[in-house]
């Protein structure tokens, strides 16, 4: 009896240590793959940290990373709140752009009259830097949330709509014929074939827009605002506090990365079958 | 038994920027139920155009097509079509792709579940039902597409060079499968190919089509025993058909 329980205990321990070893091996493999990036990243900040003293750069020109962290900690509450403000502007503008642009892209892809009217119009507007409209929207709508959301919307809208038009308009000919030969109605063929087939190209637009969304929010805040990270960076730079400006820049980067990360996760969930999502060995 | 197909003075030209391009016809063709007819001709002779017109996916410029004595005016949903590029979608498994045909036709998947399993086995894809298309070789993909085209039990098959992109060994394997299926169920098959040997091996009748604009120049009945196995392919009659048709294309200046 005692021997049996001893043996099962030993087996359990062996199992556990095997699982632990496997987990360690996976971690080691991951590190082995990403260590060049980590090393570069750490090296970059170390170089920044120590070159400030070596070259005698004054802190009001370029602060050390360690100073950016310690000094901005004192202003943590404000930074956190402004991150929230800019985040709300960015997300609202982005989501609104997705909601409007995808159905519109779909309509343009399937309507020859829209394709000959709105589509060329959109293509020409795509060449206009949307940011150029920012001062106008601020003057029309004031310093509040709405003009920022509109500017983020404008920045995000065009890449999404143009990619959606491309996505819905480029079903392979043979797939198109296959669907027609089944006699399936428009809704059924859309849900079963056209929509899933269009998703990868739509996500190209979603990701591109996600990269640009924070640019729109930041510049809108530069032009006219009394809160948000863009506003903050401008104010603290004027006060000769580049350390705080860098803190704002890092938080903007984090905001952009988060949005892009969320979109990437959605992509992985929506089109796990696509060639871009397959695991590389 | 399959459908009867009749083409009367059918021709097709396409409008392009440089004016109309005459692609096919005018041609007459009568296909009896249960026949295996190959459209044999060089690239660009309008063979695929004929398939699309019979399927009702492309309207002829002139002439009329009748399937089972009814004029073709829109997509013919009772048939099965297979294209040179397969119509497997990447977001579904092999089984899911076969089911797509049923779902698009609003047919009950459950009722066909057993049939799908049997078909997958028949084309030697058992064990691959839950795989994604990209995990399959080209030949396996085409065999899956074959199941997709046939799952709804069409009595007429339009096959537009379905083996065109496969290697010779895989082609031979699928030809054998296709012939076995045809002998068992006797659907009407219209098969587009540019391989003379393939046409002789599979067909009860071969339509020889001239280079552009495609015209049905000769209709040759292939009188060889079924199934056309290796033995038949080595026979002198097979070789004489081969020689005769090669000579016809040589006459066109194709080779």
What low-confidence regions of chain B span 5 or more consecutive residues with pLDDT below 50?
Answer: none
Give the mean pLDDT of chain A. Answer: 90
Low-pLDDT stretches of chain A are none
Radius of gyration of chain B: 18 Å
Task: Please state the overall shape of chain A, judged from the principal axes of the Cα atoms.
Answer: flat
- The H/E string of chain B reads EEEHEEEHHHEHEHEEHH
Binned, the helix content of chain A reads over 70%
The description of the largest β-sheet of chain B is: 6 strands, mixed
Report how far the terminal alpha carbons of chain B are from each other: 38 Å
Number of helices of chain B: 8
How would a textbook summarize the main sheet of chain A?
none
* Mean pLDDT over the residues of chain B: 89
Q: What class do helices, strands and sheet pairing of chain B give?
A: alpha/beta
Helix content of chain B: 25-40%
Count interface residues per chain for the largest interface: A-B, 22 and 25 residues
| Number of distinct beta strands of chain B | 10
User: How many separate helices of chain A?
Assistant: 10
Give a quick summary of the entry.
Chain A has 281 residues and is an all-alpha fold. Chain A has ten helices and no strands. The two termini of chain A are 47 Å apart.
Can you describe this structure?
The complex is a heterodimer of chains A (281) and B (255). The two termini of chain A are 47 Å apart. With 281 residues, chain A is mainly alpha-helical. Chain A is 82% helix and 0% strand. Helices cover 36% and strands 25% of the residues of chain B. Chain B has a six-stranded mixed beta sheet with strand order 6-7-8-3-9-10, with helices on both faces. Chain B has a four-stranded antiparallel beta sheet with strand order 2-1-4-5. In chain B, strand 9 and strand 10 form a beta hairpin. In chain B, helix 2 packs across helix 3 and helix 6 (196-202) crosses helix 8 (236-252). The interface between A and B is medium-sized, with 22 and 25 residues.
């Amino acid at each position: 009896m005692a021997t049996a329980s001893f043996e099962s205990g030993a087996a359990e321990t062996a199992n556990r240590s095997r699982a632990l070893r496997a987990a360690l091996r996976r971690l080691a493999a991951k590190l082995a793959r990403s260590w060049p990036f980590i090393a570069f990243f750490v090296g970059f900040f170390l170089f920044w940290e120590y070159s400030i003293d070596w070259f005698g750069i004054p802190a009001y020109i370029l602060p050390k990373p360690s100073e950016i962290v310690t000094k901005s900690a004192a202003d943590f509450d404000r930074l956190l709140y402004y991150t929230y403000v800019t985040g709300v502007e960015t997300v609202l503008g982005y989501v609104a752009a997705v909601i409007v642009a995808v159905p519109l892209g779909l309509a343009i892809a399937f309507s020859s009259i829209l394709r000959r009217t709105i589509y060329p119009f959109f293509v020409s507007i795509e060449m206009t830097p949307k940011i150029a409209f920012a001062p106008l929207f601020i003057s029309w709508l004031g310093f509040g949330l709405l003009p920022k959301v509109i500017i983020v919307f404008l920045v995000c809208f065009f890449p999404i709509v143009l990619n959606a038009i491309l996505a819905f308009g480029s079903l392979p000919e043979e797939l198109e014929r296959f669907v027609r030969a089944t006699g399936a109605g428009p809704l059924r063929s859309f849900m079963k074939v056209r929509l899933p087939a269009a998703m990868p190209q739509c996500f190209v637009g979603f990701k591109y827009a996600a990269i640009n969304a924070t640019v729109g929010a930041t510049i809108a805040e530069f032009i006219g605002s009394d809160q948000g990270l863009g506003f903050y960076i401008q104010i603290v730079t004027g006060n000769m506090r580049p350390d705080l400006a860098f803190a704002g820049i890092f938080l903007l980067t984090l905001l952009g990365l988060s949005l892009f990360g969320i979109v990437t996760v959605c992509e992985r969930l929506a089109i796990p079958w696509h060639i871009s999502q397959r695991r590389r060995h | 038994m399959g459908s009867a197909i009749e083409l009367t003075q059918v021709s097709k030209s396409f409008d392009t920027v440089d004016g109309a391009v005459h692609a096919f016809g005018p041609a007459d063709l009568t296909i009896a139920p249960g026949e295996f007819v190959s459209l044999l001709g060089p690239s660009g002779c309008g063979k695929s155009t004929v398939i699309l017109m019979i399927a009702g996916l492309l309207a002829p410029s002139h002439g009329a097509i009748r399937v089972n004595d009814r004029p073709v005016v829109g997509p013919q949903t009772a048939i099965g079509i297979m294209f040179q590029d397969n119509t497997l979608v990447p977001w579904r498994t092999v089984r899911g792709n076969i089911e797509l045909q049923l779902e698009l036709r609003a047919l009950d998947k459950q009722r066909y579940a057993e049939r799908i399993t049997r078909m997958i086995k028949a084309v030697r894809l058992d064990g691959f039902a839950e795989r994604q298309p990209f995990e399959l070789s080209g030949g396996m993909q085409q065999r899956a597409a074959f199941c997709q085209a046939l799952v709804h039990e069409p009595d007429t098959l339009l096959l537009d060079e379905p083996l065109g992109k496969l290697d010779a060994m895989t082609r031979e394997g699928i030809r054998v499968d296709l012939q076995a299926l045809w002998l068992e169920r006797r659907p009407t098959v219209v098969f587009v190919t540019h391989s003379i040997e393939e046409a002789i091996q599979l067909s009860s009748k071969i339509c020889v089509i001239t280079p552009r604009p495609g015209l049905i120049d000769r209709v040759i009945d292939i009188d060889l025993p079924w199934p056309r196995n290796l033995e038949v392919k080595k026979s002198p009659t097979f070789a004489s058909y081969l020689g005769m048709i090669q000579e016809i294309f040589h006459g066109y200046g194709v080779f």
